[in-house]
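The protein record now logged underneath.
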Amino acid sequence: MTKPDRPKAARSSGNFHQPVDPIAEAQRLLALLTPTVEAAGLFLEDVKVQMAGAHRTVSVVVDLPETEVGGVGLDAISQVSRALSETMDTDPHDDGQPYDLEISSPGATRPLTEPRHWRRALGRMVKVNAIDRENLMGRILAVEDDSVLLKPEIPVKKGMKAKQGEPEKLLFTTIRRGVVEIEFARLDEAELDLEFEAAGGDAADGEDS
């Protein structure tokens, strides 16, 4: 959503604007927008800022709380988009320059880099690359602050029924990378990476980079 140039008191001294550090601005907006996202019953996953001259593109990623299952619905995305737009419009530290606000939810195949990501994937099949061992495929049974409990899937010949091993605990400190494996038999809203602009356009399937 593109915001028009808005007159503000901060501009009364002239039209000169200090260069904006995208990283610092993202951190500032993270603190500003978190209460709005939480009030909508969601979790603020990330904020990124891209600059093109004095113009900002603010990309906000929201997710469900870690205790919930499924994906963020279109209605929830639409509601939080409006709320975030209002919060940014009343930002007391904004310099009045136009900006684009983009709201999306994380894709199902995003890397699992935090304990909350693993909790959100509870019950899902994941592929794990860990230190000093071969890649492991398994279903998440439980998640603790420092580890995840997986029920491994043992590789079998093509056409044979999959076999499962005994539950195995992996410390997060030993995990190089973890991603959810898409299971088409249970494909649902959680598999979608919904990307939705605050202006009210149609949602579109996103792509993981």
Observations:
- Residues 2-14, 187-209 have pLDDT under 50 and may be disordered.
- The chain has three helices and eleven strands.
- The CA atoms of residues 124 and 186 lie 10 Å apart.
- The longest helix spans residues 22-39.
